[in-house]
């Protein structure tokens, strides 16, 4: 083969590779493509994952393989950098983070970032970034949320306030009480008593979507529930605050319910209420992102995950949406599947569809 023919052949091979959509994933080192295919480089004799950080090969030297076994049958050996014959990079990172989570959960004190990084064999910067990408929160936020959950669990199961504080890993009462209001929404004693001594005013109204209950603590609106049965909504509120002082709303409070009903019927008027939001650090980040979605617009679960800086936490975002107890005020109805389809909604998919249709009309 003469020189001209060799040049033409390389150009044809390069063009064929570049026209293959898998080449774009290789050029972008797209980790999302890992496991869907592998590529080999004939000049080095190795095969790699799409996300391999090695210098990008010339396209005329690249071939694609459906599996690692296919690449090896073709005579290529696994790359020592991306280790395509082992667990994926994402899987290895997830395993490291899972081990660190267990370590955090069993530690008496919140481990420092330096100690976690040393345990994982990473720099503090790299660990911080990887931990957040996998869990959706920083190591410190994860530890704080876990402590809060331990406190709530201990108080719920009858521990004294002092025992609950120390069992959750706080080595000083003062450190816990600095954070207690944000963790529990009330004093530890009142939380342990099922919300006793906490006044929650509520009223139930009717709208075109059925019954709607609005409840308010001293900190703000703590529940907006929708359904077909007003009695069931009242029982749901009782289950959320089993020993709180539930006070039927007076005429003045009913104006608040009317405001919420007015928004459901005419979304264009907007809704701006003081909220008593109780959830984990991750849930609160998701809920704030939901409140930033304008009336008439929607976002996918993956969109929300990306907006809070945790693109791989799509499932956790969906769980946070499902845990939301403030219908329309925290608009989880504006979150849809990536294909635009409607997924589950705590208060029924048909209500979700109707809310979105009304908001779309209001935005025109």
Description:
This protein has helices at residues 3-19, 21-27, 68-73, 89-106, 113-120, 124-135, 139-156, 161-167, 173-177, 180-184, 188-192, 230-240, 251-265, 281-291, 301-307, 314-323, 349-363, and strands at 38-41, 46-48, 62-65, 77-78, 199-207, 210-216, 221-227, 245-248, 299-300, 335-336. With 364 residues, it is an alpha/beta fold. Helix 5 (113-120) crosses helix 6, helix 14 (281-291) crosses helix 16 and helix 15 (301-307) packs across helix 16 (314-323). The longest helix has 18 residues, at 89-106. It is elongated. Residues 157-169, 171-178 and 180-184 have low confidence and may be disordered.
Distance between the termini: 66 Å
Rg result: 27 Å
Shape descriptor: elongated
Give the oligomeric state: single chain
Q: pLDDT below 50 for ≥5 consecutive residues: which ranges?
A: 157-169, 171-178, 180-184
Topology, number of strands = 10
Q: Quickly count the helices.
A: 17
The main sheet orders its strands as 3-1-2-4
By secondary-structure content and strand pairing, the structural class works out as alpha/beta
Helix content: 40-55%
- Give the percentage of residues in beta strands: 5-15%
Q: In this structure, how is the largest beta sheet organized?
A: 4 strands, mixed
Average pLDDT confidence is 80
